[in-house]
Queue: 4 jobs
Job 1
Amino acid sequence: MKYKSQKVAYWFFALSMLLFSLQIIYGFIMGFAHAGFDGLHGFIPFNTARAVHTNLLVVWLLSGFMGAAYYIIPEEAQRELVSVKLAYVQLISLAVVGVIAIVGYHFNYWEGRKFLEIPRPLDYLVVVNVLLFLGLILTTLFKGKRRTTTALVLSMGLLFAALLYLPGMLPFDSQVKDSFFRWWVVHLWVEGVWELIMGGILSFLLIKLTGVDREVIEKWLYVIVGLTFLSGVLGTGHHYYYIGVNKIWLIVGGIFSALEPLAFLAMALFAVNMYRKGEKKHPNKLALYWTLGAAIVSFIGAGLLGFAHTLPQTNLYTHGTLVTAMHGHLAFWGAYAMIVLAIISYSLPNMTGRKLYESTRGRMAYWMSNIGMIGMTVAFGVAGVVQVYLERKLKMEFMEVQKETEIHFVVLIICATLFLTGITLYIIDFIKHGKPTDEALVATTN
Amino acid sequence: MLSKKQARAFFLGGTVVTFLIFIGLTIYSFSKSQDQSNDENITEAVVRGKKLWEDNNCMGCHTLLGEGAYYAPELTKVIDRRGEGYIKAVLTTPVDWAPNGRKMVAYGFTAEEAADLIAFFDWIDDIDLNGFDTVVSPLAKDDN
């Protein structure tokens, strides 16, 4: 840590960890319901658990991204944040909006549109909150001593993410148009601008951890985010195959989605190559694990597994089945959860002054959560393929098929327990680092 | 080898071009001659039905047009499959509906609300889904 204001990041990360834990709990509720144990139905029906599970994912990742920005931007711009006080105001308002939304979901207060369940009045608060955040980040950047590509890409990602929240607020009477523009938010976030954010964080971490020249890393950053947009924007078409819009999207979506894995492949190759090239061996091994892991697992989860059901001919059968959940879990874990855990692992020792770079607990957290998540992905995948064959090929009734897949959810729950153990260890590590302190403000090697 | 300047041009150029194509295709696919979203048949009952669908987050369990959660059945072509009477019974029941043991919240809709939701599903059934409807619903009539 070089600047005092970077400490703000710690509290965003702490909020992140809290919401992440809650997200996992609601995931378990859903897993049990799928396995045939929906004992909580009276209090937390499936649709509530589902809304909480996916929205918490979005909020904890956003909180992590915001924390990352508060940590990275001062260091890249070489000056303190313009206002630490406002950053805390922003943090608290984010937490308040999140809590109202999550509690509201338990009382039928929502907007029933997949992933965008936050009720309309709260949407406006989200907009104000994000504007405040962007104001702080962008003024810091433009008042700063230098404007690096890493900082620009990260800020651009955050700015576009904010702008793209708006199409989700347009009112439509038609379910088709509603869906169409909902994907402008959801798809263009996760397969577009969030990748810019991921790329920005990844490039910052690689510069710090490998010591490879900034110019080299930032050049490749442009190529990767270029590939992301080139494939991802028109790749939105893969959500438009069967929702009631023109057949043109079958072709456009098919071709450009097939290119989407390239961006992730480039990201994985880039990270591994920079690591190999790097002469400096940074002592923070755990951060390096998470960083390289994010690049590699995102290629498998988002790139390969996405490709597995993105062609129109396949998607005709897998659209709206558990196959989507299979791809979704590993994609989000690899691309976004792991990069947030990476920046936390990197920045925490710098903010707290406790250099817990290497520990059995930290390594166990990494391997158990990864193996657990891969196991969950396989369980979802098998259940999804079974569902596709029985329901869509053999034309069996939906509920009869669901009975057949219950056993896969038992496997899922076992793997999820391993995953949970890993994350618990990670959070214990987080807590053991203690609070951030000004004494950590030293001119260290990083 | 690519210079940093060229890499940036690739990023900015690619982004602008694909965004423009994306917006162009959006306009194209909603233009009068290409539109297959069945918008012209939306009635007030359909709009009220959609509102009920959203207010109760039905998509948190069901799928519609293949979108939603994967806990409860796909509801595209559900009227063809089950008939209006069955659907009305499910929507208005005061106790949890639990076919095969998987429970649905007992919403206890009024007869008018049930009619609105049925109008909404009926409208959905007439959208041209590029063949998806015949996959999820073998019993559905093939002529949309």
Job 2
Amino acid sequence: MLWLLLGLLLIAGSGIPGLFLPRDGQGGERIACGLLLTGVLICTWPLIGIFCGQSLLLDAHWAVPGGRFVLELDAISAAFVAPLLLVVATGACYSLGYWPQHRHPGNGRKLRLFYGLIAGAMLLLLTARNSLLFLLAWETMALSGYFLITTEDEKAEARRAGYIYLIATHSGTLALFGLFALLAPGGGSGIWPAAGSLPAAGSAVFLLALFGFGMKAGLMPLHVWLPGAHAAAPSHASALLSGVMIKTGIYGLVRLTSFFAAIPPWWGWTVLLLGAVSGILGVALALAQHDIKRLLAYHSVENIGIIALGLGLALLGRSYGQPELVLLGLSGCLLHVANHGLFKSLLFLGAGSMIHATGSREIGHFGGLLGRQRWTGLLFLGGAVAISGLPPFNGFVSEWLIYLGAFQTLAVSGSPLPGALFAAPALALIGGLALACFVKVFGLSFLGTARSEAAAHAQEAPPVMLWPMALLLLACAGIGLLPGSLRPLLERAAQAWTGALPLPPLAPQLAPLTVIGGAGWLLVALLLLVGWWLRRRSAAAPRQCGTWGCGYPLSTPRMQYSASSFADGLVRLFRFVLGSERHGGRVAGLFPERAELAGHTPDPVLDRGLTPLFSGLARLLYRLRRGIQNGLVASYLFYIALTVVVLLTLLSR
Amino acid sequence: MIGRILLQLAILLLFAPLLLGVITKTKALFAGRVGPPLLQPYFDLFRLWRKGFVISRTTTWVFLAGPVVGLVVPLLAAMLIPFGGLGAPISFSGDLILFVYLFGLARFFTAAAALDTGSSFEGMGAAREVTFACLAEPTVLFALLVLARGAGSLALGDLLGPQLAAQWHGNGGASLGLILVCLFVVLLVENSRIPFDDPNTHLELTMIHEVMVLDHSGPAFGMILYGAAMKLLVLGALLVRVALPVQTGSLLLDLLVFLAGLLGLAVLIGVVESTMARLKLPRVPQVLVGTTLLSIFALVLVLR
């Protein structure tokens, strides 16, 4: 455990030496990257121990009223820590090529300082077993996140995103203060109780947790800060924020629910419903976006929805006494946490490589990048297939476990539990929409012909950016092809979550993980075989002719299907919630003049709900204040007289 | 085990193009024509096999990955489906999700290959394909849930197993009837048949699948046609098994019933294609939402 603490300190402090080095030299960034990688390597050591079945605990004296300094690394924490370490390490290497100090002398040092700090804070948060320590790490993480989002603070967009993030995260933290005050476990010492040791809790505890942790996780109505924040941060920071930071909210929910012996059924139903809403609306909103980073950010909302579906099923399993459901739901939830961390980071890094090459975030400005960014394209394709939940990658395995969990409720009758069956078709709809969205992103960015001058002359990213992405894809494929190796960890995590309640093993008749891995291998082998044959057969084919334009010989890149036209059918179907705006697009007459079509999809909660609400509230309060503080001495004397009268009547009683 | 896999593969590989021939012949009979010979799809495949490629200069390797995935996926998916009374060669708990997602993989790469040409027509086809598939997917899941409830298992081999006959006679009969309708609609959508798509024309603005593969040629196009035929057989096998849950115990007899069922299905598709016009595109989502509701109803019936 001391190794973990040492690694944590190295990671958290990795950006500090750079502060004392010149603004435009390479020394600082290299030292930061080196320190961070060393820290990650040191932390990997205890993590391997967890995979081998150990559990690590550090209990030290702490001269703070909160009690003792307790850190513990168990299987649940490990499921969150493992992707964290990989994403942090790959992102740090990637930043050497993506955000070099000499090209960003103004903010490079700040970025590295807070990148290390947020990683260290998350590591502390995931292992803390003391409310005070947890909140300390939580706040450090939240504030470092703010500085990552506002890295480019000269841009108004980044400042606005940072501001919204700050408001959101602090409303969440406020709820968490309330939550831990209510919980006050262990006679006020702040040490967390063992799993399953507390009696059932009141609804206030759950609602506060859902608000505080759900805000960080980005569950649907609370996701308002997420799209702007992930779009504004540099790509490797977005990868960390989206791939790992939002999962701390899920971690909080998982950890909190583990404390209680009995779970009221409505907790599970609420999480399940919010998961379905987040999943479907998140991906529908993603489909309507044209900015690649905003699009990926909305996919985080979707994936958090899938994770919540798994958690909801596991909670229902505990309420209704279905150990198989608990096991499958929680395994799916935790595995999807790790998987989403891997493929979402990969996609953000890939998007960063495209932005690096073309200088734009608009999908409409890319096109035909695969010809010039061969490796980025291949790696991004892998990530796109993985996030769409398709075999043989890891996204399929975790979604499959959640499906199995949902199907598990079929065997039950005579309770409301079979209602949870609807998680399965919801997941299918989410999967279909995600597939449509990633066909759009990959097809329009990398395939076809270049849509802009910059895309036509794009350069491949340097190896220092490609290798981290390759490592992430390798991890995605590894989990997809060898899912059986994760079985012991998932079993132990589920056991740690339920405490004393005995769970069945994740046996082949419940979830044949090894067979799924075998099917993946078979698929890969067949694809390689047939692909190799077709490639050989077509090697001699001439490639000089143009695409068949149905008799029209003068096709231009602008005639290709665009991001809006591709998603138009589905966006129209969801228009009743998305409220997409369309301007123009109609042509009139036999010889129409030039016509333009522009589409924009605002966030339904932020742009249509909260912003008008709060600006209205601000206007109202401003008017009230103007009425009260009106500059007339007579009014002020009147207030004083009124106060005196009120005080007299109150005190003389 | 090995023998069974080989038998299943042989049926899949040899029988699939015949279904297309039967459909075409049925349509010709309805139109009062003689029509092409029954074995014309085989001749077409053979001809395409020997031809060279014409490849657009805008394309990359993804253009050829589409046909490859389109061919491999039905091969693998067929291993999970019992062909009539023959058990599925590979069967494990949860393989029904693998079955659905394998076809998702094929869709991803076919649509990506279409976008790779940079043609607006093929982009349009790809957009429509993924749009309609999204709406068909919940229907499939609901139908599978109904079957899983009846079988008490999550393996396709058991879902389509011998208990289906008893289920038709018992309480689940009405539900099975409903999902049969739903699965037939999904079959027509997934295999791009009238009334959702027209497999015969390439160049009208209303097409989906055919317009996606407009630029493919030679053996690659052959692989697409072959893959599509096998997909029709695999999805048809599911439908035939639900409709004809006959199980005599004799391998040969069961197989004959199954093959006859498939031919009957092909004739039925031919009849539908001859007697119906293609739906207006905005109607397609409405039909699919309708089948989703129908399948929810079927699920509620078995859950009560």
Job 3
Amino acid sequence: MKTVRCSILGFGAIGQGVAEVLLMKKEYLESIGLEVLVVAVVDSKGATVNPEGVDLADCLARKRTVGTVAIEKLTGVEIIRSIAHELVIETTPTNIVTGGVGLQNMFTAFETGKDVVTSNKGPLTLKYRELMEAAKAAGSNFRFEATVGGSMPVINLANEVLAGNQLKSIKGILNGTCNYILTRMLEERASYKDILTESMELGIAETDPTYDVEGIDTACKLVILANAIFGRDATYKDVEVTGITKITPEALEMAYERGHVIKLIGEVSRERIHVAPRLVPINHPLAVRGILNVASIDTELAGEITVTGKGAGPIETASAVLSDLVAIYGNR
Amino acid sequence: MRVSMDIELKDVPGQMLLALQPLSEFKANLITVLHHHQKRTPRKTIPVQLVLEIKPENIEAIKAKLEENGIKVVRVGEHRFRESINVVLIGHVVHTGIQDTIDEIDKTGFAEIVDISLSMPGINLLSSALIRIDAVGKEDLQKALDILKKVSARKDLLMVLPIDIQA
């Protein structure tokens, strides 16, 4: 049995999802020869640390009752530097302006020779190349499937399963909130504002939905795909972005009468990165409804390959974190 | 514009060269040539069908030049509007001058707005239009969309394009 010692930095919805999935999949992981020992859990108020392995069920219970796991006043960076472990699971919130604490966590992890698996888009959108170079210099593994499309495997599908195929473009719906809003506007013939309010009440849209509805979230995911799959050195500035705030129920209805739905489509290739509402034929593989995400990869040898799945949700996103973890340690 | 042209050549050497020379002179782009050597006309001439990409104003001059070279032009047919797409416009579509938007496309000669559905839910609310554009060929359609893109930017209209078109 190989023991993988890891820290979970960020214990919001995704971090808690990771903890739940690690508890849920303990036996499976053991069956493939892995014992995953979480030595530290950190949230914005502090940390729980135990080099012998923290009690994840207890961490989840305390987070839900007390609102924090903090027992010691330690930050992610301090944990990375002071506690012996191999893997940093970085699930702090995305900040695309500064990179947030996630950026510091990742650089510190590489400085100390640790592997990183993350769901955090911000650092990758801002400093992809520097992060990759730091990981390479340290000989660290760096995986981030959960940053694009939640449980939907895009990056690993393109880079590993489709290895050898030259990829021409990836097109898809990479934001479940926008897809939900556009789907509901058409179904209810309701205004953008009404459905946005409904989405916030249901917790599908954030209190500040700007990142989603202005297309910024989709653009960040495309930047990651551009860099990770198309070998570019792109940042957010390279993306042409139009969001969904101007879409009217009448436009949706007229398009529908002519056999089309309007979807916020992100498109990335070697040449360009583009986000805009587009007309999609009703029977097209990209015309998925509700909160679903979808991506269609245009390949040289295999034609178009389309995957669809839940783009968000703690357990779904944690599923991508788990697959990255297994990819790093499972077959060594 | 794309046009088809049926001509008849005498069955003597050098005729094809005489037919192609005026096309080259007026910078017509030859798309296809069907040479019906087996189907002689009652006049013993050989029917040839051509498809050309050509400026509309040069058609008559080419015809005249061919006739001058002794080649009979039997028929000239315009292949107009082979490409068609729907585009959605959202914004103050009417107040910013919808006629002007239509004219910008129609005056190109290679593309036309052939259908408009319009919805104006209220004076201060955004209106939505679904327009169909027909164009002579794919490249012309892209040119028409580039024009529409500029008009939309000027009028602050959101243009929603089909997914299979280069946005």
Job 4
Amino acid sequence: MAQSNYLQVFIDEGREHVQNMNNHLLELEKNPTTIPIIEEVFRSAHTLKGMAAAMEFQDLATLTHAMENVLDVLRNETVRATSKMFDHVFDAVDVVEEMIDDIAEGGNGSKDIDPYLVQLKTLTSVGEEETAVTNGETQSFSYDEFEQTVLDQSVEQGYIPYEITITLDEATLLKAARVHMAFNVLGDHGEVIKASPPVEDLEEENFEHTFTIAFISKSRIEELEETLYNVSEIASVHIEAITDRHIHRKGTPQQEEVNDTESFTGKKETKRTIKVNVERLDMLMNLFEEWIVDRGRLQRTAHELQNQALTETVERMSRISTDLQAVILNMRMMPVENVFNRFPRMVRKVSKDLGKKIKLEIEGEKTELDRSIIDEIGDPLVHLLRNSIDHGIELPGDRMAIGKNDEGTVRLSAYHSGNHVYIQVSDDGAGIDKEKLVKKAMNQRIIAEEEAKTLTDAEKYQLLFSSGFSTAEEITDVSGRGVGLDVVRRTFESLGGVVSVNSEPGKGSVFSIQLPLTLSIIEVLLVQLENETYGIPISAITETAIISETDIHKTHNQEVIEFRGNVIPLLFLHDVLQGKNVRNSQSEPFHSVIVVQKGDRYAGLVVDGFIGHHEVVLKSLGYFLQDVFAISGATVIGDGEVALIIDTNALVK
Amino acid sequence: MITDTAQWKIVIFELQGEEYGIEVSRVQSIERMLPLTRVPGAPRPDIAGVMNLRGKITPVIDLRLCLGVEAPPYDRQTRILVVVGNDGVIGLIVDRANDLVDITEREIEEIPTAHEDETYGFFQGVVKKDDRMITLLETDQVLQR
């Protein structure tokens, strides 16, 4: 079917609309009367409805239609949105999201939507009752520039602009027909400029009983009223002349509202962009990777041949490819807001569930990261945020009791520094009692008693992330922290990230994550291990050194060296990667050592020799070779062969 | 996946003098031996390493080790069948790749039960074609980790 061509577009845009509705509903919850925000949500629901209907996703179309009705009530009636209303609409948005997910996975998005329809329906009927109260007033119209011009000109030509609100009898069966008749009789007196709901909705009977039109005519109010009352089943007619003053009075706030809309959607500057399929970007990236490999080969050949012209050309090529690389990487960069903007919804829900008052502050959402990283960090961040709300922030009563504001603050911030992006989740909650943490870790036999005494503060907090610690049920009362945090740490580390915690009891905690800007191109030191070549990421290396055999000491069956005043363990990569114990079989007078760092721990990796510093494209070993110990990926080096990249994080414990 | 009358095209390869077959639609290419990089701590013992297949890092399984036949050293005849599995592309080392034949499903016979060992599930059946005996490989089973 031809529609499969549009399926991906449907899914992508559908998700955007869901996100858009979530964002604007949250915004609306803070300012429930701001019409432009309602309209923004309405537009998304409306577009979704249209798209779903076109793609024949019936349930989705029905549900979004029901949502549209609620929003319409909000928009047209002067009903104030209640908290219950938001809950229901948010529920509906969630269901819409589930449906889209289902469609993305090949389903047809069908779902039992009746309970949601009922919920939404009750909301529109509340609207109806409220309407009865406000019925005497005219509904506010806002006119765009064009309509205003029409109104102005009609006044100049001696017409009088009216706003006419017509309410049909509740029992009316063919509402559209009545509307048609009303329009018909009015047609003899003048012209309809605008209708609310729009004419299409009136024709489709997408309105309750009341509609409003802007009308220009030379007739008097009484004449019009009389004409309209001649149409049967019209219950009431309210006509008001719009004076010049009237239009402008309405026009001015409208202007402001427009500005409002811009500031909250941030769409002020219109950039010319196109959407590019990620797969195509990946393809470009792959081709470029091969280019880099060839560039390396060419550089070496030029170096060997010592030809002036060739060397110069190669140098120029290298410079261009560096720029090219920057451009391509840039194309893969996305602002973290793509992940961050799902959090306000989640925070709202969690804090409601827990009966806590939480303000979520988001900073630096424009900070950019490689798409492949963005895709991964959502879930662990959700975990950290939940953790802060669940265990960090105290209940409002408890907060008041210790002289804090009853509303807790959770701050999510992102910023750039050097070749890294930092993301922080901080809260002003109860903080973490590190001594209690150590005690629990000791009870859990995660650390020995002697060890516990030597821990630095940072190491104590790191206990939160140890795997045995986190899964144990009964320790959740150490302010509960630690549950599942080992998973969080692992995810970030697999992305080349580093997680750390700091806390001040009573004042709150900060979880910081350092992430690399991109995963794809990294700098490595290539090293020799017999006839094999491995790469060690430069970012992990503190120093390289040649040490003498006599510098190696043995403590407790572990070879160590003294390095800048610290005793650090030595790790012979032959042992780890080749299963050979070279220490006994051969004894060289000197060893090549690479000092690597993980957090505040160091280790010296012994190799046969250093080959050199290279910029390489990190490639995954693929699904088939996931989770190979101490190997984080592979790269193609100059001669076309594959070198494995060592994950030093796995080696340093 | 095959209807009764379906014609199968089978790539024939050789392991220790015996002929085996893989459905041609599963084979992406047949490569001469390429340099392999050993992967320390790989999840299965028959993984010979990874190769650079036109810029893509591709794992390679030594099919001889996998099926428990003798694995002579690589020579000029050694080939890597690049097959498409459920989880990506994988290379299979075979002694030589010979031929392409057409068969119909009706020609496929069950594996003689005497064959039933730990590799039993790796085969779909056998085909007698002229004087040749071809064992059909169940690729997905072989590639399952």
